[in-house]
Specification:
- The protein is 44% helix and 23% strand.
- The protein contains eight helices and seven strands.
- A seven-stranded mixed beta sheet has the order 2-1-7-6-5-4-3.
- Helix 3 packs across helix 7.
């Protein structure tokens, strides 16, 4: 009887050992897979990795906002494309990038940032739930009105100028980017 019990015990321990070894192998495979899976960069990293945002990235660097926009967030950034910056009067971008204009540049850039992560579906839901217009507070302290125009989210700045979201929901680890076709300006 002892022999049978000993055989059963040994057999049971071998099964447990095999199960443990298998569990360890599976855990190692999962860890290796996680290591190989690229993580989504933060807002600055996403913008820096896309040539369409090179002017924005240069402006963020000149304003000293790289660390802020690389922070935990979450942030929603209405990011002007290079073409959007190109619509500004000639010399405006160059002037804003000068060290003497850092405060003005910071105000313009932070006017494009909203605290919190608001994907397109949430923005559209907020617009529809508020009689077609939803006002957001920007990190700069001003307000931007969001509405729908021909199915696209449209921003109206403090001066009455408009911009359209041309690429929504660009994912970042600390928020979301919505590319816009025109630079919006605070008062």
């Amino acid at each position: 009887m002892c022999a049978v019990s000993l055989v059963a015990f040994t057999s049971c321990n071998e099964t447990k050992k095999e199960n443990s070894e298998e569990a360890v192998k599976e855990t190692i495979e999962v860890v290796e897979e996680v290591k190989e899976t690229p993580t989504t960069p933060n807002i600055v990293g996403v913008a820096a990795g896309n040539e369409a945002f090179s002017t924005l990235v240069a402006a963020v660097k000149a304003a000293g906002l790289v660390e802020t926009l690389s922070g935990e967030g979450p942030f929603t950034v209405f990011a002007p494309t290079n073409d959007a910056f190109g619509k500004l009067p000639e010399g405006t971008v160059e002037s804003l990038l000068k060290p003497a204009s850092k405060d003005q540049l910071t105000a313009v850039l932070t006017y494009h940032v909203v605290a919190g992560k608001f994907e397109a579906s949430a923005v559209i839901e907020a617009i529809n739930g508020n009689d077609g217009k939803f006002t957001v507070d920007t990190v700069q302290g001003g307000k931007i009105d969001l509405s729908l125009n021909n199915g696209s989210v449209t921003l109206t700045d403090a001066n009455g100028n408009t911009s359209v979201v041309v690429i929504p929901d660009v994912a970042a680890s600390n928020g979301v980017i919505h590319a816009i076709d025109t630079v919006v300006m605070p008062k």
